[in-house]
C-alpha cells in the first residue's frame, strides 16, 4: 500500500526548517563551513570520505610544482618531507588528546593495526596468550587480528564490546576495540574499558577511525596504550589519506614493530645492516612516506585551526539530536528504526537507521541530492561532520527520507539488531 505524504508532514517540515535556520544562525562553527568545498547536495558521508578543505588544492599544487618540480630531491630535507610523518602526527595529536612525540602519520589503518596489535602482544609478554576483539568490528580489524593471532601463537576471542571488561583476565595481552561502531554509530566507553583492561594487566588498542576529528578522545588522560585511525573521514585528508598510529610514551622504548622498515631506523641513511629502532615514535614509521597524500592531510588539518574539540562534540550531538527529532516527525511510523543509541554518552557522530531495502532507498536519496551511505543488510548511515554540516541539511535529509518512505509501501524496519 502506498502512503501519500500527509499534509501535516509538510507543516512539520516547514516548522523544522525554520528551527534549523535558527540553529544554524547560532552555530559557533558556522563560519568554519566556508573552509570547505561544498555544493547544493546535502553531504552526509563525511564518516566515509570527508569533504575537501579549501586549504588543500593550492598546497598540493605548490608541493607538486615547487617542492617536487623545482627542488626535486632537495625537498626531502629543505621542504621537511623527511620529518612529515611525526610532524603531522604532532599536529594531529591535540585532536586526540595526546602530547607530542606519540603519534605518527602514515600507511593505512589496516597496516597500522597490524603493527600495533603484534607490537602490543610483544609488549604484553609471553605469559599472556589471548587477544580480545570487538565482535562487531569493521572487517579489516578482524582479518588483521586473525592473522596477528596466528603469527604470534595467541588465541583470538571475539566478544561483544560490552562483555570485554568482564572477560579480560590474566591471560589477556590486548583488546582491540572500535571507539565508534561503523554500522550502528555506537560510542564505546573508552575510559571505563581502558581502565578495566589495565586492571587485568592487559593493554588497550583502540580503532579511532570514526571518532578522530569528531569527538574528544583524550588518549593521554585515559592512559590508552595504543590507537590507530584513518585520515580520510572526519579529518578530511582525502581519499586514501595516510592513517595514524599512537603508542603511549612510556611504551615506546619497548615497542618492537613487526614491520621494522628503514624509515623507522635510528639512522636510516647509515644504511646499516642491523636494525636499530629510533628512540621515539619514529620507530612506528616503515617505508618511504606517500608525500603527496601526507602533505594534503597536513593542509587539511588547517580546517581545525582555532576549533576546540569540545565545541565540535557539542555541535555533533546537537546535529544528531535534531536529525533524530526530524526523522521522528517526518518519517512514517515504523518505516525506519534508529540503530544509533539515543543516549549522548553512547552516540558517535552518525545516525544509522534500519530500513528494508536500504540500498534502493539510498539510490533514491542520492538522486534527490542527499548523499548518505548504506551498509548491508539494511542500514542507512548518515554521517554528521560538525565542521561543515548544518542543521538545515539535517532537516532536508530527514524530510527527503520521509517523502521517499511515504511514497512506497512500508514494511517492518527490522528489529533483529543490537
Ligand atoms: C573502523 C574502521 N577501521 C578500519 C578501516 C579501514 O581502514 P584502511 O582502509 O585505511 O585500512 C575503516 C574504514 O575503511 C574503518 O571504518
Ligand atoms: N575506506 C573506504 C574506501 O577506501 C572506499 C569506500 C569507503 C571507505 C570507508 O572508509 C568505509 C568506512 N570505513 C565505513 O565505515 O564503512
TrEMBL record:
It catalyses: L-kynurenine + H2O = anthranilate + L-alanine + H(+); 3-hydroxy-L-kynurenine + H2O = 3-hydroxyanthranilate + L-alanine + H(+). The modification N6-(pyridoxal phosphate)lysine is found at residue 233. Its EC number is 3.7.1.3. Pyridoxal 5'-phosphate binds at residues 109-110, 138-141, 207, 210, 232, 262, 288. One of its GO terms (cellular component) is cytoplasm. InterPro entries: Kynureninase (IPR010111), PyrdxlP-dep_Trfase (IPR015424), PyrdxlP-dep_Trfase_major (IPR015421), PyrdxlP-dep_Trfase_small (IPR015422). GO terms for molecular function: kynureninase activity; pyridoxal phosphate binding. One of its GO terms (biological process) is L-tryptophan catabolic process to kynurenine. It comes from the Bacteria. Homodimer. NCBIfam families: kynureninase. This is Kynureninase. The lineage of its organism: Bacteria, Bacillati, Actinomycetota, Actinomycetes, Kitasatosporales. The gene is kynU.
